[in-house]
Amino acid sequence: MKSREWKQESVTQSEGPNRIPGCKRARIVIENIWEDRAEPSDGVGLQMTLLFFSSRAYRFRASNFFIAQFYSIADGVSRARPFCDREVIRNPEAWLVKVVCTLFFRSHSINACFGYLSRNLNPSIAFEVIKRFRDPLLGLKFFEFSRTHLSINHTFNTYDLLVRNLCQMGLNDSAKTVFDCMRTDGILPDSSIVEILVSSYARLGKLDAAKNFLDEIHCYGIKVSPFVYNNFLNMLVKQNQVDEAVLLFREHLEPYFTPDVYTFNILIRGLCRIGETDKAFEYLQNMENFGCFPDIVSYNTLINGFCRVNEVSKGHVLLKEVQSIKGVSPDVITYTSIISGYCKLGDMKAASELFDEMVSSGIKPNDFTFNVLIDGFGKAGEMRLALAMYEKMLLLGCLPDVVTVTSLIDGYCRAGEVNQGLKLWEEMKVRDLSPNVYTYAVLINALCKENRIQEARNFLRHLKSSEIVPKPFIYNPVIDGFCKAGKVDEANVIVAEMQEKKCRPDKITFTILIIGNCWKA
Question: Into which family does the record put it (predicted)?
Answer without folding.
Answer: Belongs to the PPR family. P subfamily.
